[in-house]
């Protein structure tokens, strides 16, 4: 996807042109008539000192979520903790279980300065089976909560207009919570203009660009006919053979796959009751990924032929089910990313924060990895989903990436918490830019519209 932008050069020009204009404090006069004409550096200082002042409160929220990992759509403790925290703060209107989704919520702070942009943050808080918070979603919740509260504080101090909304978005690891929220009209009803969040990674992987893949899942069951494997094998239909054939056909197809076409699957059952009985049932689960939705549709179609081949060759009946809520690739809004890079650099160099971001052109070339339901949101609203690196508390880099035990341990540490708070400062600064920089939201939307067609461009 990012390798194949036909008019990428013009977008990069826009990106740098905007970044250059934004870096001049004199050009940053507020669009809010009641706010002082001050540069964003001042806002950044305010965001920073506010978040430092409440960092201990966040530490409690962060560690409570980390210590109580909850799976998709069961995140009741996290939901209650976050909504109670928000409801106790002045000016926040909290809707628990918004739109009937039990562990989702929306919290709104309305600026006193009238209408204006609606900036939104997402807080994820679901965990992984057996591994707990090995994806660090407790840190995503921390960034979202901190980013939203800090933005609101600047709005309050300067009488800004507009709104900031914090969404609690359950079930990212499985279940597609944001897709359910999209379908329920949550983001539409809160009329958001931009969607902001950030995800942890191991230290050294910081980027403003989350290049993620489109993904779908399927379940396949073959049904055959049992028979004595020696007395009358011809009377049986071997479901296990159907699955083994399909599995091997998938393995062969990999040779003809595009660079970002992936497939991984597990055989869930198929052995039958005994070695001398022809197995009459076999099941498997597969996950497909590709650079974008168009490639994924093509890739999935080719894989389904492999499953059909297993049924055709053996005579077994195939029942193939696509799981709902596939994830789309994430596209990063260049204008929001430029703002983030600017604030990232402004806060870089403080204790333990010396990393640098790759420039936009380099970041876009990084091959896509993993998948997120923020991808689906990014095709509906301008999105920013930076990755931020974390350390162990002894200063070492976690020995495992997300979805490993070392990353789970690091995610619960004080060092990772401090990283999340730092990221909240940077992300809140992007939100304040959207609220205060004349013309920025227009540029964000222009870039969003200009890149809409890329969803249908297959990687070549
Ligand atoms: Zn994950
Ligand atoms: Zn994650």
TrEMBL record:
Molecular function as annotated in GO: dipeptidase activity
Annotated keywords: Signal
Signal peptide range in chain numbering: 1-22
Gene3D superfamilies in the cross-refs: 3.30.70.360, Zn peptidases
InterPro entries cross-referenced by the UniProt entry: Amidohydrolase, Bact_exopeptidase_dim_dom, Peptidase_M20, Peptidase_M20/M20A_hydrolases, Peptidase_M20_dimer, Xaa-Arg_dipeptidase
UniProt xrefs under Pfam families: M20_dimer, Peptidase_M20
UniProt domain Peptidase M20 dimerisation: residue ranges: 220-309
Family the entry assigns: Belongs to the peptidase M20A family.
The name this protein goes by in its record: Peptidase M20 domain-containing protein 2
Phylogenetic placement of the source organism: Eukaryota, Fungi, Dikarya, Ascomycota, Pezizomycotina
């Amino acid at each position: 996807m990012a390798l194949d932008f036909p008019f990428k050069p013009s977008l990069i020009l826009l990106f740098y042109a905007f970044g250059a204009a934004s870096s001049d404090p004199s050009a940053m006069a507020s669009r809010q008539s009641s706010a002082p004409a001050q540069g964003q550096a001042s806002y950044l200082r305010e965001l920073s000192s506010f978040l430092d002042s409440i960092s201990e409160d966040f530490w409690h929220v962060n560690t409570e979520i980390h210590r109580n990992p909850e799976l998709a759509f069961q995140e009741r403790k996290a939901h209650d903790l976050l909504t109670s925290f928000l409801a106790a703060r002045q000016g926040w209107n909290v809707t628990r279980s918004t739109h009937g989704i039990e562990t989702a919520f929306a919290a709104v702070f309305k600026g006193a300065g009238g209408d204006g942009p609606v900036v939104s943050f997402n807080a994820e808080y679901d965990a992984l089976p057996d591994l707990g918070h090995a994806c660090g979603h407790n840190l995503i919740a921390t960034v979202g909560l901190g980013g939203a509260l800090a933005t609101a504080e600047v709005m309050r101090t300067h009488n800004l207009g507009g709104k900031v909304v914090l969404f609690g978005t359950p079930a990212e690891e499985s279940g597609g919570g944001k897709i359910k929220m999209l379908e329920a009209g949550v983001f539409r009803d809160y009329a958001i203009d931009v969607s902001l969040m950030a995800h942890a990674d191991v230290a050294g992987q910081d980027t403003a660009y989350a290049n993620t893949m489109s993904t779908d899942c399927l379940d396949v069951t073959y049904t055959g006919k049992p028979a004595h494997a020696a007395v009358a094998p011809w009377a049986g239909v071997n479901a296990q053979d159907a699955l083994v054939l399909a599995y091997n056909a998938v393995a062969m197809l990999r040779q003809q796959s595009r660079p970002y076409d992936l497939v991984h699957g597990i055989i869930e059952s198929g052995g039958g009751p005994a070695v001398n009985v022809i197995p009459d049932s076999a099941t498997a689960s597969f996950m497909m990924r590709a650079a974008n939705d168009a490639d994924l549709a093509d890739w999935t179609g080719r894989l389904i032929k492999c499953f059909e081949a297993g049924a055709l060759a053996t005579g077994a009946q195939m029942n193939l089910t696509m799981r709902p809520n596939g994830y789309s690739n994430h596209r990063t809004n260049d204008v929001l990313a430029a703002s983030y890079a600017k604030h990232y650099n402004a806060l870089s160099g403080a204790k333990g924060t010396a990393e640098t971001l790759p420039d936009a052109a380099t970041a876009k070339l990084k091959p896509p990895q993993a998948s997120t339901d923020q991808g689906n949101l990014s095709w509906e609203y301008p999105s920013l989903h930076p990755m931020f690196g974390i350390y162990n508390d002894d200063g070492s880099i976690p020995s495992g990436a997300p979805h490993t035990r070392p990353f789970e341990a690091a995610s619960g540490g004080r060092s990772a918490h401090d990283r999340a708070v730092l990221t909240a400062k940077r992300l809140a600064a992007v939100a304040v830019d959207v609220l205060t920089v004349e013309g920025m939201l227009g540029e964000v939307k222009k870039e969003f519209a200009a890149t809409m067609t890329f969803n249908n461009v297959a990687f070549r």
